[in-house]
Amino acid sequence: MDFTGLPDLASRGLGGSVLWANDELFAERENLIRPEAPVFQAATFGHKGQVYDGWETRRRREPGVDRAVLRLGLPGVVEGVIVDTAFFTGNYPPFCWIEGAAVDGYPSPDELAELDWQPLVPRSPLLGNTKNPFEVTDGRRFTHVRLTIDPDGGVARLRVHGTPVADPRFLDLASLDLAALEHGASIDGCSNMFYSSPANLISPGFARVMGEGWETARRRDDDNDWVTVALAAEGTVRMAELDTSHFKGNAPGWASLAGRVGDEWFELLQRTRLQPDTRHRFRLNGPAVTHVRMDVYPDGGMARLRLHGALTEAGQNDLVCRWLNTLPAAKAEAALIEAGLSEQAAAELVATRPFTEIPSAH
Q1: How far apart are the C-alpha atoms of 62 and 55, rounded to whole Å?
Q2: For the Allantoicase domain, which residue ranges apply (predicted)?
Q3: Helix (H) or strand (E) run with residue 113 in it
Q4: Mean pLDDT value across residues 111-136
Q5: Are residues 102 and 45 in the same domain?
Q6: Could you list the residue range(s) of the whole structural domain that residue 294 is in?
Q7: What is the tens place of the pLDDT at every residue in 270-281?
């Protein structure tokens, strides 16, 4: 499986954070989650030695390992991990392993240390100056990951690729962005991603620069570019926002939207003229859909695509069940008890997962 096309759940660009590391004498832990690729300039020395764009610990003189704990910007199911040792050649760790934890709230590093960490990647060898890939098959939703390097050394980036799974307890299911990555939406396909990924369209926040949007190559034919979004779940789109911010000489001239349920497509927004460097908002009144396709004419760049609306009853069921089915067993039981079930009933229900219907407290 090529998991590298999935979002990096730990990225600073998606709200990730490195909460703790036992050592960062040579290079700071925060570098692990920087969204940009690592860089290196030879013979650049600070007061602690060569400057590295990564996390680097001191040389150990006694047995032990070094660790860093990350909070995922978007909790979700981890599909694969990249331990990137770029530019670390004589100072990379020979081995690593990775664990995951699922926790509510905002625990401190000391509280996280007491959790029951679950293995995601077993103790594995690393190569220096290499993107070391590891596939993960756990299938549960995690909020934190812990990287252990054995015994010491430097890691440039830790990429935690996976599928975001939203907690419905923090959502208004009758009014939300159905296309938001953080709510579980994903890119289903696109015609061209020459300059940048279409996943940027549905990422949190505003694009700060043109490179944080989706931009296609210049077309030299009579066709047009497009992107399809699988919504967080089935819903009715009431308002669309097509944001061309930062795209000035390369914004699309026009755009249209179509929605799909099953194999049938519906027009949501007819072909409409766009302006450069502008947030366009359009009120919509179409049927419930599971996918939306945006066509841009003929090509160009878009910073963000927002599709605000309400989940249908079927959509609400799917979103809640997705969350319950991916929670670790103890967390799923706790959620059902919070909803009104007894401890025994919750345990018995969790043992029957996966759910296709939201369990009832009655």
Answers
A1: 20
A2: 15-164, 184-310
A3: helix 109-113
A4: 97
A5: yes
A6: 170-311
A7: 999 999 999 999
Burial class (CB in 10 A: 0-12, 13-18, 19+), 71: buried
State the pTM of this model.
0.94
Question: Which tokens is 42 given?
Answer: 């030879």
Structure tokens at 193: 């991603």
Residue 207's nearest CA partner among 195, 217, 219 is 195
Residues 6+ apart with CB under 8 A from 264: none
Q: Are residues 11 and 157 in the same domain?
A: yes
Q: What is the CATH number of the domain that holds 139?
A: 2.60.120.260
DSSP string, 290-354: EEEEEEEES--EESEEEEEEEE-HHHHHHHHHHHHHHS-HHHHHHHHHHTT--HHHHHHHHTTPS
Quote the CA–CA distance of 277 and 251 in Å, as a whole number. Answer: 8
Residue type, 328: P
CA 11 to chain CA centroid, nearest Å: 8
Burial class of residue 355 (count of CB atoms within 10 Å of its CB; 0-12, 13-18, 19+) = middle
* Rg of the chain (C-alpha set): 22
In a domain, 51, yes or no: yes
Judgement on whether residues 248 and 285 belong to the same structural domain of the protein: yes
What is the number of domains present in the chain? Answer: 2
Pair 182, 167: CB distance under 8 Å: no
Residue 162's DSSP bridge partners are 78
For residue 313 the two structure tokens come to: 């009853």
Q: For residue 362, is pLDDT > 60?
A: no
* Residue recorded with tokens 């980036």: 157
- Residues 19, 83: one domain? yes
- Asked if residue 38 is part of any domain, the answer here is yes
Burial class (CB in 10 A: 0-12, 13-18, 19+), 358: middle
Residues 160, 201, single domain; the answer is: no
For 21-56, the pLDDT digits (tens) are: 999 999 999 999 999 999 988 888 888 888 889 999
